[in-house]
Fold these 3 entries.
Entry 1:
Amino acid sequence: MTLDADVIVIGAGLAGLVATAELADAGRKVILLDQEPAASLGGQAHWSFGGLFLVDSPEQRRMRIRDSHELAWQDWLGTAGFDRPEDAWPRRWAEAYVDFAAGEKRSWLHGQGVRFFPVVGWAERGGLLASGPGNSVPRFHITWGTGPGLVEPFARRVRAAAARGLVDLRFRHRVTGLSASAGSVDTVTGEVLAPSTVARGEASSREVAGAFELRAQAVIVTSGGIGGNHELVRKAWPARLGTPPEKLLSGVPAHVDGLMLGITGAAGGHLINGDRMWHYTEGIENWDPIWPQHGIRILPGPSSLWLDARGRRLPVPLFPGFDTLGTLEHIMTTGHDHTWFVLTQKIIEKEFALSGSEQNPDLTGKSVREVLRRALPGATAPVEAFKKHGADFVVADSLTELVRGMNEKTPDALIDEAELRREIEARDREMANPFSKDLQVTAIHGARRYLGDKLIRTASPHRLLDPKAGPLIAVRLNILTRKSLGGLETDLDSRVLRADGSVLDGVYAAGEAAGFGGGGVHGYRSLEGTFLGGCLFSGRAAGRAAAKATG
């Protein structure tokens, strides 16, 4: 049989680029397929904030953060909650990944030109016991250049390999089938889609212009998850999270459709942990959308008052930035899909960041001058634009006016001003109380003990109803789809496994398609900064293993 390449990689996102770069460095000939136009090279990673989970890094040590492999592994286990027989490989991947994050990950990236913002972020703080979910210390390292800055070194390596004749980039190629001969998957079939000139992230045509069939010794699936396909999200929605939301925003482009997972499953690959998913609870409608139902996530500091749809505070420890899955589970018991932040201008200026490369032009553009402007009074320009144009924002000079605006945002007037006023005034009294029993107030004071939070992420404690801190702001928050935590079960060489545990010969998987490794390396929850890192780690493993197998 004539082969068209040594390896075919399906999906030109970050994991696919890393796998392709590793294969090319080993001298293998690669065909890289993607259903989108060339403008979307890099996939979802391009749109990301560029956050990476690192352990005991120089950036942490400079910020006086004491971290260790042991502490990170404790946090990972407490967060993942592995409790199923099929968690055997995911747990082994988790061990390997924490070793990577505490070991060569930073030096490997640094050698390729990746640099980091000096202030380490503290995501997913947990708020329960030491052995429970969450990061015990700040570990969220922002790539200088955000998502595009992380994609660029691998895209550069792939383009250089293409110039040497080792990589054949084929866009607008949508895979529809995998088949085997002599017991090993070696054939990829599909449709050639009509050329498209849409910009990166915009929905492209699915008009079919032709067909293709390609053969190689091995296939690596790096096609991503299901976050852009709300039908699949709702189908996979677990009973423990209640009824799926009627309204979902998309944190990823429409081409993140999950179709390749079904195709690989039909070829014999074992899909596990499909009910584990990572959707954000702080989603807002993008006033200037790029893809359908485009949502942006607020990355909040700890001070906003978080209320359910009826204006009741969320229970401890569901404070902003503490426990994403716990918050999602609670919201789905309230009978409503949305919640509210109530805050002040003083809080939004210091504590609101927006996830995504396009919402952080200073970091994405690597402008030191613009980054330093964050320390000046006023919110960032993207945040102010959302405050002015965003459909989910209410700005008012009084609580009466604020409640009126909140109730106008929903079909029914659910917020009672008198009840909300009592809640806010009770919280405000605690702000001046050094012995406060309000655990969110305690959390705010605790956050300000960390230099990074005090400098740029946590407003000085104040009363919400203090006119000097105003105006008052309310933000309606929606459920935002993002990541699949389950996927194709793989061994530590990224080889896809069958349901009986045997290897599906010829097929590898990496990135979100593999649950970022093993079919679910995160378990039920993420520590954040681990999605891009999972693409890097599993993509590298797949590329190196496939190179060795096809040598």
Entry 2:
Amino acid sequence: MKIKVRNNYGYERDLETVFKVRLDFLFWVFTALLVLIVLRLLKVQVFDHNYYSSLSNAQYYTKVTLFAKRGLIFDREGRILVTNLVETQIGADPFYLKKVGADINKVSEELAKIFGGEKEYYFEKLRDTSKRFVWLVKNATPEEVSKFDAFVSALREPKEKKIYKGIVKVEKFKRYYPYSKLASHVLGVTNTDGKALMGVELEFDKILRGKDGFMKLTRDARGVMKASIEVERVEPVDGYNLKLSIDVGVQTIIENELERAVKEFEAESGVVIVVDPWTGDILGLANYPNFDPNNYWLFDVENFKNRALLDAFEPGSTFKVIAASLLLEKDPNKLYSKINVDGGKSIIRGVKVVDFKPNDVLSFADVLKYSSNIGMAKLGLELDKVEFYKHIRNFGFGAYTGINLPAESRGEVKTPDKWTPATKIYMSFGYELRATALQIAMAYASIANGGVLVQPRIVKEILDSEGKVVKSFPVVRVRRVISERVAKILTEILEKVVDEGTGTQAKVEGLRVAGKTGTAQIYEFGFYSKARYRASFVGFFPAEKPKFVCFVMLESPKKNYAGGIVAAPVFKRIAEQLIKLSPIETEPQELKIVKNESEVFSSDENAIMIRVGDGKMPDLRGLALRSALSKISSLDLKVNIIGSGVVIDQVPAPGTRVKAGMKCVLYCRDDSKISLNER
């Protein structure tokens, strides 16, 4: 018989049915709870295993970092520019000392003798054997550490050696720059946590920093750190060392002279770069104001700017050689042209162009010699804008130089489709484009080395801790930008700039110097300022066999603004000291070299007279100079030689009919300086 029940609403239901419904409900509730528990366990044990495992380790284990020693940085001669100061911390494992039967009183006494302090201090620390690790000395001196190492090394009893394994050394390193501010923008800096912030330190951070090790520490129930000699310990791997191209002697000279000049002319800032034109090695790179990496936080953020790489500006007249070189490449006879410079003021295609010094008619060489904007603008109009643009880019403008330093600017060169009718005029004398100091220095290096653009090199080698070379950075010849003939002509013209033109204050007694002045108005707030200028000078020496290229620039000097007055004297003082630091080797010339190609057809003073008869001009290219002279010994010519060694070009050209008394020019190069592309 079924039992029926009546609910509050008067409905009758079977008691068995009610019980079954409620039982089913409870079943599904418990089933759902079980599924949730299983899913939760699955998530914890499988999907989040790594997370909870690391959390567990964090609760029971802590890693004490064993810091890697950051690599040293040397100059090109092996002098240490950056090193490390060691901060050593001393700790101990009291539990371990008890386990090996150490006499705590005796150990405390020895530690007090070595590290100073009272014996009782060490005794109180070491007797608490519930702890597995305690710090004893936070910053031990190098003398104390050496004394401790010597003490441990002198131990003879195995038990004593075992006891002192319970005394742990943990080293931390602090970066130290022994030359203070010297080359600070090149070297860079690391912060108090060892993080690289700028310069070579940042660019080669992965190489220098090495790999930290660790010592695994456990925690007891009270959260106290403790360690055992037996627990996992991974030793640090020290970083590699770097050898730079920088020379301490060169760097010292240029920094001293730059600071002197900035203060003397009350300039806002300044830059000096010294380069080896054959290898691209940066021998010195200075910015002022600078900073001391040992306490960099005391200096204004503006002091950290490496203006030599970061600031891109309109170079002004130092850029005139770029247009001049293309004109000479296209037409060698352009050297003998005359240009009307309109008395120093001219309107060229609607553009007002003014010269600093008025002249009427100038030769091609004199346009550079007296830095005529009008002459250069008129010559520049003859250039095809696409060819001109490609030539500028070939010299490296508008592109990164590839130097191994961070935050380099590539400057700006507008593509021809964005040129206005006035762009070519302005570009001819260094406006409407932006370049860095380093790009200008490397462009002049290409003239000095015979026409090849070389990549600047700041790091020469990576070395291991034993001084073995891990990696070398080779000399990189990027491309040939001008012929050796044009490079020689430009060198002769640039010598005249220093001897007779705007750069006379860069002249050094007894030294042939080639260079160019630059005075550029600063563009700001949409206009060219009439009060703020960049004064610059860039040159190389000795002109006959260049060893140094030097670029000098002062930003907005107040006492004067002309490059020939402000920057040229700085160049001179630097050059005078560099030749004392690294004397120039002079070689006797077999034949006298004419000083300027423009004199070849106007002066007989330097000509070698060879008189025999008439005939055709043979091809002398590729012959040694002596062989070439022998080959034309049957002709009646006045021969001028530019350079020495192997003939690379000639005037008149091969096959030209020559007559007695005609003038001949042989362009030569030194056999030891075979074209950079051919090496």
Entry 3:
Amino acid sequence: MKKWMLAGAAALTIALSGLTPAQAEYKAEHRGGTMRLVARSAAGTLDPQINYTLQYWQIYQGLYDGLVAFKKANGADGFTKVPDLAEEIPQPTNDGKTYVFKIRKGIKFSDGRDLTVKDVVASLQRIFKVSSPTAGGFFSVIVGADKCLAEAKSCTLEGGVVGDEAAGTVTINLIQPDAEFMDKLALPHAAILPADAPAEDAGSNPIPGTGAYFVQSYDPNKGMTMARNPHFKVWSEDAQPDGYPDVIQYDFGLTDEAEVNAVMNGEADWMFDQPPTDRLGEIGSKFKDQVYLNTLTAWWYAPMNTRLAPFDNIKARQAVNFAIDRKALVNLFGGPVLGSPVCQVLPPGFPGHVDYCPYTKDPGAKWSAPDMEKAKQLVEESGTKGQKVTVIVEDTAVSKSIGVYLQSVLKEIGYDSEVKPISPNIQFTYIQNTNNKVQISVSQWYQDYPAASDFLYILFGCESFKEGSDSSINISGFCDQAINKKMKDALALGVTDPDGANKMWAEIDKEVTDAAPMAAMFTPKHVDFVSKRLGNFQFNAQFYWMVSQSWVQ
């Protein structure tokens, strides 16, 4: 990368950031300005221990820190775990069940308060107090978590999380070894917040963090303003580097078309939503130098409520899987350059993935074509023909088109179907809450970290289902005790035999796919469309575009 030289001010920048002289001069040259992001809508609560969306996980990287972090680096290096608020990633003791973290000194929250051991202990307790979506799926392995899951508000994690303020350490004890525990601690749900952060969803009220930026204002109907944290000093370039823009302005309420036009006209620097299919050709030809295309470990799927008619009947769910033309869905998304048909849970190239497709004209490794005759037969056999089915989708161009397609498929196989688009700001939490009686919906899942359990156990494990909760990530309500036990066995085996565990996950993938709590549709590629003035675009494999590491001219 070409390094732009700037005379003067280098010594001050080095003192603040700990960079080499060349790095410091380069950063100083491009530092400043306001970066403008646009999206169709906000993504719900600002609370980092509750929000479970890519849209906000992406921006949390510059706002919050955990004990450990995924490296802020381009490409697959972004999967590397590095120490963050902890001085180092400790080696486990007690047969892999105990970790002792030494907390860094001199770090402040954006409101000026010092980070302390007490904040770390309280934050780990808060995961359970606010019923974080991954409290049961990720953090139930902590000693005392069972009591916290049963009685959230009085959670203490007694014996599980022990702070020693004099020594500056936090000890975490697990009930059993967990090969993925550091990955989980590196996610926003384990962000370290002030000890007095509310023991409930903070909603639209920003919670102070330790990152390079803080949320200055937030109105989910209008936008979010992020400014430099005046108390921030770099302690690790890998974990929390300083950012380039002085202000990051995120505006909500634009249509997909308006987002594209704003970037084209230089009124915005980046758009969150997938560009409408009919604009992809124009973007790819006239603005090709402003487009970045990256393969994702993700999928689009249609979760079906296994506890509500008609999809409490496995034959009804399998019928939908046979009826879907996955090639048509890929075309609605933007064509084969942007997506690939899939029938199973684990995406290609992911740990534990073995090609498998039982829902096609010629069942085997790959999807070939829909089998409408088989689908109609299964609907007849299920006794559910003629029942009313509503498809809940996000109110975006791509999601609505997929929803309308599913509506037509459901009608063709014998259901009285309709599609209901709702704002992306609430759709994800809406489809999780059993009180809303959602039968089928369209959703997406992007990996939390590269492990098979993050798709299979989190989305279809019994512990991820919570009645009447906006944080029930097992949207289908699927709970098969035999499969769930096998998932836990695979998690345990992963500590000593990762390859053997991945073979187990491949078997589990087939069993879940056969049970059809969802209809897998396709794996996507991600399109980032940026303005001419945006430079230093870097795509991190873990959290995607690193917003604060780009500059604006």
